[in-house]
Amino acid sequence: EQAVRLVGRTALSRLGYDVLLAEDGIEGVRIYEERHGEIDLVLLDLVMPNMGGARCLERMKAVDSKVKVILMSGFTRNCKLNDLMNQGCLAFLRKPFELGELVSLVDQTLFQRSVAS
After folding, report:
1. What is the mean pLDDT of residues 10-24?
2. Is the pTM here over 0.70, yes or no?
């Protein structure tokens, strides 16, 4: 959702984070393939156009098995969330969420503090 991306980018940018945005899973993978050395954390929605979050995670892990990922979604009934978390995702953020939750989780994840999901 464009509004979520833009608000998230604005909030994280104000805190000094450099933020790259992708419109869909294909673009997200392309950006990660090209710039993974510069990327410290990926915020990954499970439901995206053209390539879903599970496939996107698989492709990113093929580039760098240590990719740091926070999964996000409002739709978790039919997804295999536990399987995805077991693939090395560091946290899950249920949508809708408060901006403060996002900022706190990003900070905790980047600085390896205790992360509650």
Report:
1. 93
2. yes
